[in-house]
Amino acid sequence: MSTRSTTVDLLALERQLCFALAVASRSVIGYYKPILEPLGLTHPQYLVMLALWEEEPRSLSQLADVLRLEPATLSPLVKRLEAAGFVTRERSAHDERSLAVRLTPAGRALRARAEEVPPQVVEALGVDVDELVDLQSRLTAVIDRIAPAKPAP
Questions:
Q1: How far apart are the C-alpha atoms of 36 and 42, rounded to whole Å?
Q2: Residue bearing the bigger pLDDT, 1 or 91
Q3: From CA 32, how far away is CA 41, in angstroms rounded?
Q4: Which of 22, 36, 54, 86 is deepest in the core (most CB within 10 A)?
Q5: Which stretches within the chain are classed as H helix?
Q6: How many CB atoms lie within 10 A of CB 14?
Q7: First to last CA, the chain
Q8: Nearest Cα to 100, choosing from 70, 66, 59?
Q9: Domain membership of residue 66 as a residue range
């Protein structure tokens, strides 16, 4: 006679949200790598460029806030983008303790090539666009509840 339990194992790996998110994150970001390489960008650098294409200049702390990164993590990314010729870092005219990050002409021109990235990612993932839009919206809602963005000053 079997004494198999009918209770749900709360510690089963396949039931863990953190596991599903970690695997999904690594997998999706892995699809970006060959798409971003011809642009000369890593995925974290691509995120910095996306933020700057939306608005520039941005201080290092503004970039850190919008990207939800620590400034110590962001600083080397920005330095590599500067070495690649995509951005400049200058002391702010309003606050010389603050670094203003600006796009260079090459950084602005890169945007046109980067517009090809999202369709290539969608194709590589082989997932319906509506499903991806829904997933992004749902994840953003969760993020906003558990780690809301800092309000703009």
A1: 6
A2: 91
A3: 10
A4: 86
A5: 17-36, 43-54, 60-67, 71-83, 105-114, 117-125, 129-146
A6: 7
A7: 67
A8: 59
A9: 25-146
List pLDDT tens digits, range 34-90: 999 999 999 999 999 999 999 999 999 999 999 999 999 999 999 999 999 999 998
Residue 147: which pLDDT band, with cuts at 50, 70 and 90? confident
Q: Is 78 helix (H, G, I), strand (E, B) or coil?
A: helix
**Residue 88's CATH number:** 1.10.10.10
Distance (Å, rounded) from C-alpha 136 to C-alpha 140?
Answer: 6
Q: What is the C-alpha separation between 28 and 130, in angstroms, rounded?
A: 16
How crowded is the C-beta side of 139, counted as CA atoms within 13 Å? 12
* pLDDT surpassing 90 at residue 152: no
* Entry pTM: 0.88
In a domain, 16, yes or no: no
Residue whose structure tokens are 């596991």: 19
